[in-house]
Amino acid sequence: MKELVVLSGKGGTGKTSIVGSLAALAEDKILADCDVDAADLHLLLEPVVRQKQEFWSGQVAVIDEEKCTQCGLCPELCHFEAIKDFRVDPVSCEGCGFCYHICPDEAITMKENLSGHWFISDTKYGPLVHARLGIAQENSGKLVALVRQQAREMAEKQGAACIISDGPPGIGCPVISSLSGASLALLVTEPTLSGIHDLERVLGVCRHFGVPALVCINKYDINEENSRRIEDYCLKQEVEVAARIPFDNIVTEAMVKGLPVVQYSDGPVSREIKLLWQNIAGRLSAN
Amino acid sequence: MIISVASGKGGTGKTLVATSLAFSLKSKQPVQLLDCDVEEPNDHIFLKPVITQKEAVCIQVPKVDEAKCTHCGLCAEVCAYNALAVLPDRVMVFPELCHGCGACSYLCPEKAISEEGRETGVVEWGQADGIDFVQGRINVGEAMAPPAIRQVRERANADGVVIIDVPPGTSCPVVEAIKGSHFCLLVTEPTPFGLNDLVLAVETVRELNIPLAVVLNRAGGEYTKVEEYCRKENIPILLTIPLDTEIARLYSRGVTLAEGMPETQEMFILLWDEIRKILDEGTGSLKR
Ligand code: SF4
Ligand code: SF4
């Protein structure tokens, strides 16, 4: 079973729209939304939730006012400045438990933290594993790992050929969590200087974790000179540019209708995405 | 005065708003721009700062002196992140898992643990043609953004206007970047994705009790649900930037709107006046 993860470094390059279309094109797959922070894929796939589970992760410290003698040790030692006026600010608390261990009055307890939810849903295009991290929560990396693990278990049970996952933006903890051990990364970029800069960083992360990558230039015609720069860069890095998708408002129109663009139009965007999928499918079945 | 510029969804124009606002205000008052999007910092592309100083972002990870260690196992027990494993004859440290909380070194009964800095990124600062510029950048392969963000935030000089470019999303890096601001601008676009992520961002900022307003970018299509949502939630839309290929072209070349189209500077100065008015009146969309 193969795992494709779609990343972009920079947000807003059109990653999720492309994943939605790949979901419609691929057969025999499990879908995973690893953007647990600001998930959008469900807006294109209309999932019907079959299973909802709580995600308990990490802890927060709580000070018992009755027992606390305000000795001042915990605010002095906390490395995250989470203790103010002998109260714990749950947003700043990293759950390390240092204060719990050192409080001479045993006034501090560590409480488990409900950090979010994860779901298994049915969509027109196959099962989807997705999640919702609670507002201002930590541990997005762990939730991503959980989503991937569920997707893998499901893929194995159903004998699915591949998993397609929509990754988060950036290069930090949730990205690493969605990338490590995947078979192939598709990097969706755009021909802006920011897009190029961010592509270089996210490609660096793929290299770091030994995941082969393919690049797709979205909206390539908004700046063809920059598109050529991306191509030159990829040539030098020996990374294939697998698709050049033109800018077309049809993508937004499809999004407003709640449809993957390949289901909505047969225009040049859809044609290019179909070719992209053939390329990816070939790669996934080859190695 | 600290103004953070955020957006649940990436790529909505947060960088454009942060850099253009800084660019438009700089002739009127001292402006500082902090790029806290440490995973993918982009503001430097638009403002082309001359970086004059930098410092490493380090987290303090444990170093065990095996000569003193009795392998009692306490350190591994207290570490909440499994960054330590005590074997019968040695202690293994997994530095990439360590959050630098300091518990193990403080609690070790043999005082066998000291701390050493592990570099996870860099904070750089300098001048960008009249704008005081600071940015952070985590190293490729590094998972933790908050320590770098914290270090960028420490350089805030609240005497003038401080504009913070916040990373996308709603989780811990976002909170770390926004926390302590006086006002938050949420940049969104009129699409279903834009709306979905705006709603999440509003919840996050309200959780932190910071007054907020919306900037609607790439406006002009038929989709009006973002405006409807803002009306319903009583959130002011302080600025609307039209969908315009010329703006997109400037952006693609690394030129921010207020520089490429100087006539738009007035619009950003007005935006700033509106924010100040809201703060003076103590309104702002705090309540649900
Ligand atoms: S707590 Fe100190 S003595 Fe005990 S295993 Fe850890 S380093 Fe060794
Ligand atoms: S400093 Fe804290 S997080 Fe790091 S190893 Fe020690 S106990 Fe664990």
The best one-word shape of chain A is: elongated
Q: Helical residue percent of chain A? A: 25-40%
Q: Tell me the CATH architecture of the largest domain in chain A.
A: 3-Layer(aba) Sandwich
Mean pLDDT of chain B: 93
Largest sheet of chain B: 9 strands, mixed
Order of helices and strands of chain A: EHEHEHEEHEEHEHEHEHEHHH
Identify the bound ligands. Answer: iron/sulfur cluster
The whole-angstrom Rg of chain B is 22 Å
Structural class of chain A: alpha/beta
State the separation between the terminal residues of chain A, measured CA to CA: 11 Å
- Counting structural domains of chain A, the number is 2
Runs of chain A in which pLDDT lies below 50 for 5 or more consecutive residues are none
The number of helices of chain B is 11
CATH topology of the largest domain in chain A: Rossmann fold
Low-confidence stretches of chain B: none
**Per DSSP, what share of the residues of chain B sits in E-state strands of 2 or more residues?**
25-35%
Strand content of chain A: 25-35%
Oligomer: heterodimer
